[in-house]
Design a protein that fits this description.
Rossmann fold; 5 helices; HAD-like_sf; HAD_sf
Length: 167
Amino acid sequence: MDNDAHIPRCRAPRPRAAAFFDVEGTLLALPELPPDGPGPPLGRLWHPPVLAALHTHAARGHLVVLVTPSPAGAVAPVARELGAHAVLCARPKAPMTGQGKGYAARALLREHALLAADCYAYADEAADLPLLAEVGNPVVVGADPVLLRHARRGNWARLPAPVPREI
């Protein structure tokens, strides 16, 4: 398998778990990031329950990973503001969608020798199922019917959907 996903080295000291956060529609109440990033102020764009979960994971020393189909430049302001340890984003010939998210998450877990059972992922749509399937603690954000079926079968955690907002 050839996966060119952007997986930078993290700056966290030997994390014992990772928490993956889908950005658009999950962490931010936006369907997609503008090419130059959301720009300030981000405060009103955060989805409070997911942002609180991110801060909880960071406080526990977990590797905080943002996952987005947007290019690095668009997500950079979000990653900086949150102090994310890694960003999995789109690159030429390596879209960060669907199964690409799952492959990239698996590669990051392997790179950092993390057990999937100890890790978390937060996502909002059926296309994110490969990402959610890579961790032991998937969290469905919102009411996507496909994800809700998986959540019921697997006893996955759930958070409410964000209120859509414009920049």
